[in-house]
Amino acid sequence: MYDLKFIRSHEALVREAIARKRESADLDRILELDRRRRERLGEVEAMKSERNRRSQEIGRAKAAGREVDGEAAAVRALGDRIQALDEELRGIDAAVEDLLQWVPNIPDESVPIGDESANQVVRAWGEPRREEGLRDHLELGAALGILDISASARMSGSGFSVHLGAGARLQRALIDFMLDFHCARGFREVRVPYLTRAEALFGCGQLPKLHEDMYALPAEELFLIPTAEVPLTNLHRGTTLFEKDLPIRLVAYSPCFRREAGAHGKQTHGLVRLHQFDKVEMVKLVLPETGADELESLTAAAEGVLQALGLPYRVVLLATGDLSFAAAKCYDLELWAPGEGRWLEVSSCSHFTDFQARRIGLRYRAADGKLRHLHTLNGSGVALPRLTVALLEHYQTPQGTVRLPEALAPYMGGLRELAPPAGGAEG
RNA sequence: GGAGAGGUGGCCGAGUGGUCGAAGGCGGCACAUUGCUAAUGUGUUGUGGGCUCAAAAGGCCUACCGCGAGUUCGAAUCUCGCCCUCUCCGCCA
Predict the structure, then answer these.
(1) A76 touches strand B (CB under 7 A)
(2) CB neighbours (10 Å) of residue A12?
(3) N or C, which end of chain A has less CB nearby within 10 Å?
(4) How far, in Å, CA of A393 to CA of A24, rounded?
(5) Is A150 found in the same domain as A239?
(6) Catalytic residues of A, which ones?
(7) Residue A82 and residue A219 share a domain
(8) What ipTM was reported for this prediction?
(9) Reaction catalysed (predicted)?
């Protein structure tokens, strides 16, 4: 969130950002309210100054034994007028606050302008399999006895999944593998709450915009997290860090909960879009001047996972219209899913500049002694269900088995291949 | 869930109606001094907002002692609500 001072002095930039991100923040109204606010503020502060001065005089007069009733009554009247003005001011502040929440982050200069069609594939890795007759993950999962979507549907409805046997272990193995992978590269493992308050979500920019996508527990005033980004980014909420403590690189596993309101359709079958899914998430808190580089290395970290698993992917630089509300720049990582015959987004690596830091109250004391907001970044490293889709579909063999990447062997108890259950027994 | 205690500046910790943005200490910074990255001395050191200034510096004003209301001429200090922490009891994976 930007403050009024910034918006006042960067009006054109903000106006452009709103348009390019296809947001609808009412900048004119904000600027008008800002003018009114400063006008009123000047008045009320002058009156407060007077009240303070006269109150002190009353104190001195009383100490000297003089009578003060008349003056006290006069100051009281002044106080009443202050109260009325303050109330008006509070109203203006609240209105401005409401409007400010809808002002999006400004896209970085390197971000292509336009809608989804302006997204740029910046690089690709690996050879996508494109033969005919490849099975999709649902067929493979059923044949191998490791995935049962209808079982989850019976108890929870659509948008959930049940993994069985080696399939369940595969999920656990992937989580462990990814956590180890990132920890070995300087990220600190964190275990986080899966329920947070609205403030934490607001800080990340999930609220107010994505309210409809959130699972809420009204009785507790808590929300199920849509991603571990929320607890990780809020880890140091409201504190002042020292420059020497930065960068802070965090990684956490968490389940993620999303209502995905209105998202049901043909491209969401199987594990492609779920209400609950597992994800390993990275978050960085960094110095502003290193933000751009940190985004590149963050993206590289997520790519590292995919490379270690030998899965073909491509990196997409999102255009302004596709960029999320709080992001200034974002790379999506997409895995090739041969059975689906399409690319699936498994990671989103974003640089939020100081947008989240302002909302969360994340500052650091710079070497020159000044307080500044730091920069936040996050990236999936990576999301499990679609990774599973790509893995099953990519490593399927003509024999109906699925080979497992060598990197997972230690996490699978040495198992190197998923095979259909023998004699119809359960896997 | 019940009973009690408490939340003050980067940290520790005083402060129960006025001159308190807040003693003292630690830490930080500057200078001085000492035969050296130690010790000592002196000074300095919060944040947000508004106005002023071409800008910066500076200056003036205002707000902030967990959060929000209230009492009062005047609130860190009194009252109410909320949040959080700690201790004891209960419950519990």
Answers:
(1) yes
(2) 7
(3) C
(4) 41
(5) yes
(6) 258, 273, 345, 348, 386
(7) no
(8) 0.88
(9) tRNA(Sec) + L-serine + ATP = L-seryl-tRNA(Sec) + AMP + diphosphate + H(+); tRNA(Ser) + L-serine + ATP = L-seryl-tRNA(Ser) + AMP + diphosphate + H(+)
The answer to whether A237 CB is within 7 Å of strand B is no
Say whether both A127 and A92 belong to one domain: no
Is A91's pLDDT higher than 70?
yes
Q: How far apart are CA A294 and CA A288, in angstroms?
A: 10
Picking from A73, A100, A127, the residue at the C-terminal end of a domain is A100
In a domain, residue A126? The reply is: yes
Nearest nucleotide (C1') to alpha carbon of A44? B62
What does the alpha-carbon distance between residue A270 and residue A277 come to, in Å, rounded to a whole number? 12
Q: Which residues in range 8-37 of chain A are in contact with strand B, contact meaning CB within 7 A of any of its atoms?
A: none
A238 touches strand B (CB under 7 A): no
Asked if residue A338 is part of any domain, the answer here is: yes
* pLDDT tens-digit readout, A150-162: 999 999 999 999 9
Query: How confident is the model at residue A265, as a pLDDT?
Result: 62
pTM summary value = 0.91
Structurally, chain A folds into a number of domains equal to 2
Shared domain check, A306 and A244: yes
Residue A105 lies in a domain: no
Range A9-14 average pLDDT: 92
- Is any atom of nucleic acid chain B found less than 7 Å from the CB of residue A3? yes
Cβ atoms of A381 and A300 within 8 Å: the answer is no
Edge-to-edge, what's the strand order for the sheet holding A195-196? A195-196, A222-224, A216-217
B4 C1' – A156 CA distance, angstroms? 45
CATH of residue A123: 3.30.930.10
Query: Is nucleic acid strand B under 7 Å from A57's C-beta?
Result: no
Give chain B positions with protein CB within 7 A.
10, 18-19, 28, 47-51, 61-63, 69-70, 72-74
Choose the weakest-confidence range: A239-243, A346-350, A416-420. Answer: A239-243
In A152-181, which positions are buried (b, 16+ CB within 10 angstroms) versus exposed (e)?
beeeeeebbbbbbebbebbbebbbebbbeb
Q: Is residue A111 part of a domain?
A: no
In the predicted model, is pLDDT for residue A302 greater than 60? yes
What is the arithmetic mean of pLDDT over A239-259?
Answer: 91
Residue range of the domain that includes A32 = 4-100
Same domain, A285 and A198: yes
| A187 and A281 belong to one structural domain | yes
Per-residue pLDDT at A207: 81
User: Is the separation of the CB atoms in A373 and A346 below 8 Å?
Assistant: no
Domain boundary among A100, A128, A157: A100
Nearest to A101 by CA among A24, A19, A35: A24
